[in-house]
Specification:
nine-stranded mixed beta sheet, globular, 2,3-Dihydroxybiphenyl 1,2-Dioxygenase, domain 1, eight-stranded mixed beta sheet, disordered N terminus, binds fe (ii) ion, 33% strand, 11 helices, alpha+beta, 379 residues
Length: 379
């Protein structure tokens, strides 16, 4: 059960990381959805996101409608097509609701496009300048796994609410934020024997580093098995674990995702909070369903992780999981899929020193996923 390839220290890695693609952080994540208005209501009501910007008929956009919601540093864009001829329909018919664009905030979108495409990235969009009264934004984009895209967003000469073409979205409907702060990591599911292809892609094309690896001995046992490698950019602000199915006694959860998403795509967004007990209490009261582990997990967990500041009874009541590494501990919990298809879900995470991803919870978690798969008839 040892983790392979653990890098000596994160700082050391970051210092030696390639810098041909400096990334300031995640700019936004755009979902293609069947009904952007209702999706925005869900993220506002259930997850406590706040209205930020809007594009649609009222802004002169007759092709698509987009609602942008925000919570601290997390920006989500929910986009639907406005007519049957729009190409987003094909994406929706094939994949259902899901992540299309992981937008990355850069200082130079032209250079980002040039550096990645010359290393073999498949172009999605050549550099484009868009302007309005608040300045200009330059975007460019490349494909990653499946039909998922990385859009490079250069906004240093822009002072508007979001992007040109959007107007500020004011609403009298108010919801309280639940304490979500930033995107800790975003996980991609890829097909059989594809993980190393995409690890290579992030290393060679994007200048990322492989921080951690989990093989099937770590994560499969008899449970819905997978292999995973965590890719990080040079400054550590962007972390993309990549999952591949592995052979187990039951169908891999990754295979189930790929079957229902009809391809490779984003499996989960991990959203960070400073107070997971408060955040999860609020999310549960607003109707978010989480995976649950048996109460026996809590009888043993403190032997594994040692002292924690939180009340273990409270964590048990909410179903929050705990793990520890050399640098500290972390608390995490996973939602059930947030669409009808068993595809994308969310992780809520609070790090108290630990920089790892919860390997100690894999077994309990995968048994919980397996119980859900059994209910869906997809094992
Ligand atoms: Fe995660």
């Amino acid at each position: 059960m040892e983790t392979k390839d653990i890098a000596p220290t994160l700082e050391k890695i970051y210092k030696t990381a390639g810098d041909f693609l400096p990334l300031n952080g995640t700019d936004y994540v755009e979902f293609y959805v069947g009904n952007a208005k209702q999706a925005a209501y869900y993220y506002r009501t259930a997850f406590g996101f706040q209205p930020l910007a809007y594009s649609g008929l009222e802004t002169g956009n007759r092709e698509t409608t987009s609602y942008v919601v925000v919570q601290d540093k997390i920006r989500l864009v929910l986009t639907s097509p406005m007519n049957s001829a729009h190409p987003i329909n094909q994406h929706l018919a094939k994949h259902g609701d899901g992540v299309k664009i992981i937008a990355l905030w850069v200082d130079d979108a032209r250079k980002s496009f040039e550096e990645t495409t010359k290393r073999g990235a498949k172009p999605y969009q050549t550099p484009q300048v868009s302007k309005d009264a608040d300045g200009e934004v330059i975007t460019s984009g490349v494909y990653t796994y499946g039909e998922t895209v990385h859009l490079f967003v250069e906004r240093k000469n822009y002072n508007g609410t979001f992007l040109p073409g959007y107007k500020a979205w004011n609403s009298t409907y108010k919801t309280e934020p639940v304490g979500l702060k930033f995107i800790d990591h975003m996980v991609g599911n890829v097909g059989w024997n594809e993980m190393n292809t995409w690890v290579d892609y992030y290393e060679k094309v994007m200048g990322f580093i492989n921080l951690l690896s989990f093989d099937d001995k770590d994560i499969s046992t008899e449970y819905s098995a997978l292999m995973s490698k965590v890719m990080s950019n040079g400054n550590g602000r962007i972390k993309f674990p990549i999952n591949e199915p592995a052979e187990g006694k039951k169908k891999s959860q990754i295979e189930e995702y790929i079957e229902f998403y009809e391809g490779q795509g984003v499996q989960h967004l991990a959203l960070a909070t400073d107070n997971i007990i408060d955040t999860v209490t609020q999310l549960q009261s607003r109707g978010i369903d989480f995976l649950r582990v048996p109460q026996s997990y809590y009888e043993e967990v403190l032997n594994r992780v040692g002292h924690i500041d939180e009340d273990i009874k409270k964590l048990a009541e909410l179903g929050i999981l705990i793990d520890r590494d050399d640098e500290g501990y972390m608390l995490q919990i996973f939602t059930k899929p947030v669409e009808d298809r068993p595809t994308l879900f969310y992780e809520i995470i609070q790090r108290k020193g630990a920089q790892s991803f919860g390997k100690g919870n894999f077994k309990a978690l995968f048994e919980a996923i397996e119980r859900e798969q059994a209910l869906r008839g997809t094992l």
